[in-house]
Each structure stands twice: as structure tokens, then as C-alpha cells.
Amino acid sequence: MTATESQRRLAELPPQECLSLLGSVSLGRVVFTARALPAIRPVCHLVDGDYVIIRTDRDAAITSELRADASAVVAYEADAIDMAEHLGWSVIVVGVARRVIDPDEAAIYRRVLRSWLGGAKDQVIAIHADMVTGFRLVADVT
């Protein structure tokens, strides 16, 4: 019986393994509130300690929620699922997002975090990993 023919189960992952897995991919989804409604956008990211760092445009919906010293609670999700075998992992980080306003710190992140999309992507946002959960989708061999 192949993995695609067997049952699956979710195995919970410890937070440090979740952050390590999150750091192994560069694309995820940020979930935030825009005009009192949930919004989701695909973005590139990097993991720096307990922070998920993303870049976005000055006019992006999430940036308008984080003007000046404002912060917002957001979720960030990334995964790596084998579509043929239906195995892989998913990680979700929930935490406070703030714009990185220190020019030197922001410049460093802009150099190392390349966007997949065109445009300036001059805004850097740091999401503190306050709650980290993750699951590995594995074949249940029992």
C-alpha cells in the first residue's frame, strides 16, 4: 500500500521544529484584518530568531493597518505538502506585527529578503512568533 492509498494523521510538531521548517521555505501567507474583514496575502518571508520577516508595498492593505508605531495581531502560515503523496507539514505563527522603522535594520532585511513580485516592496514587517503551532501530515501505518 502506497502513502496515497493509506490513511493520514496529523502529528503535532514542537515550536522550534516549526520555526526551522518555516525557515526552510520562502513563501507563505499572512492573515490580517483589513477594513474589519479577514484578508490573506501571499508573501515571501525569512525567519530571524522568533520573528517572521516579510516585505510589502507602502500601499498594501497590511501596511495601512500598521501606520507609524501601530501594531496588529496577525497569523502567518506556510507549508510544504507533496500533492502526489499528500504528505508534508504546515506551520502557523500568531503574533504581533510591527513595521521595522530602524533604517539600518530595514536595509539589512531588504538586502536578504528578495520579493518574487515586482514593485518597491520597501516596507519591512516583523511578526513576533508569540504562538507557534505546526503539524506534519504523515501516513498512518497502523
Summarize the helices and strands and which ones pair or pack.
Blueprint: E1 7-12, H1 15-23, E2 27-34, E3 37-48, E4 51-56, H2 61-65, E5 71-82, E6 87-99, H3 103-112, E7 123-128, E8 131-140
Antiparallel strand pairs: 1-8, 2-3, 2-5, 3-4, 4-7, 5-6, 6-7, 6-8
Query: Per CATH, what is the topology?
Result: Pnp Oxidase, Chain A
Order of helices and strands: EHEEEHEEHEE
How large is the radius of gyration?
17 Å
Q: How many helix segments?
A: 3
Low-confidence stretches: none
Which class in CATH terms? Answer: Mainly Beta
Number of domains: 1
Describe the model:
With 142 residues, this protein is α+β, with helices and mostly antiparallel strands. The chain has one domain: Pnp Oxidase, Chain A (Roll). 17% of the residues lie in helices and 51% in strands. The chain is built from three helices and eight strands; from the N terminus they run βαβββαββαββ. A six-stranded antiparallel β-barrel has the order 2-3-4-7-6-5. The longest helix is centred in the C-terminal third of the chain and has 10 residues. The protein is elongated and about 55 Å long.
Could you write a compact summary of the structure shown?
This protein has helices at residues 15-23, 61-65, 103-112, and strands spanning 7-12, 27-34, 37-48, 51-56, 71-82, 87-99, 123-128, 131-140.
